């Protein structure tokens, strides 16, 4: 019996695989790492006294389903290095370490190899990052993990070698900037940083918290992400990007344009927390060549031929930035579309 290959075991690939398997299809899921989950596998709950709808609660059942589903075979530590077009379908050439293997009888392929995070890229990383007082928002994940059973407990501990009394959140790193080769909005980082700021506010009521942003993207997945809410939580906001960072022994000094007063101003802080954007994955050139796809102007992938004819489908952040809920909804749609096309083909 032919199989559908899903390449990438993040939430996009797993959602599509689970839907297809539940519809009775045989699925071969190919993941380059040794576990499922992709970029979200190390994320923890970001509730403060309330759930802030980070979407993580949606994913466990999908990953469990993939692990338990008899119709899904998972190849870990494996990637695809070539694809041979056959009369009917494809043979994929997979590689795991030294071992190269043929995977014959593949009827369709769903590519779901996701995105790269801005912090993983070497290019464009300014030298300001090499300072223990400047961290990524995701550096809070280890702290968050430790408090999952006591969501409202005051048990967060900084593992920075110092106890900051203030923190400034800086939005749009690796996004909305030609210089950073990302003209687009990454959609998820406003919500991500904002949730971390709320957790800090909840756990460290005395801490001075501020946020620099261009505008706030709700991306449809937060309870409330507004200036009123920031004010209510005593998080100061600055509607601009700082122009300069000065590093003093005792503090970091951000220089920004105070638009209301029409002059330059400064803000001092102990800790600078950077958002990080979603960037195209590292294999896009290879995928474009092997599967006859195209990179769009931002480096994300799109199909040239209709998937109904080519048998090649794309799911998740391989095509554009998106949060978990959107990725899951779109990946389900990709699976349904594939099933529909299969059915139409069978009728001809
Ligand atoms: C900083 C940050 C914070 C975020 N916070 C949130 C949030 O709070 N809430 C929310 O809803 N969303 C959030 N997101 C978005 C979320 O991470 C994405 O929606 C989700 O990861 C998309 O899943 P995906 O499967 O498309 O890609 P990925 O998570 O990137 O998964 C891709 C999978 O493909 C595998 N893979 C890659 N290359 C290959 C290859 N060559 N061969 C085989 N396998 C391969 C990878 O190992 C991985 O398992 C955030 C994103 C970022 C960057
Ligand atoms: S914050 Fe996220 S993980 Fe925590 S309860 Fe809400 S949706 Fe679930
Ligand atoms: S989601 Fe927010 S922080 Fe991220 S790129 Fe868009 S505007 Fe900037």
Q: Indicate the overall shape.
A: elongated
Distance linking N and C termini: 19 Å
Helix and strand run: EHEHEEEEEEHEHEHEEEEEEHEEHEH
Sheet with most strands: 7 strands, mixed
What is the CATH architecture annotation of the largest domain? 3-Layer(bba) Sandwich
Based on DSSP secondary structure assignment, what is the total number of beta strands? 19
Low-confidence stretches: none
Bound molecules: flavin-adenine dinucleotide, iron/sulfur cluster
User: In percent, how much strand structure appears in the residues?
Assistant: 25-35%
Number of domains: 2
Task: Tell me roughly what share of residues is in helical segments.
Answer: 10-25%
Radius of gyration: 22 Å
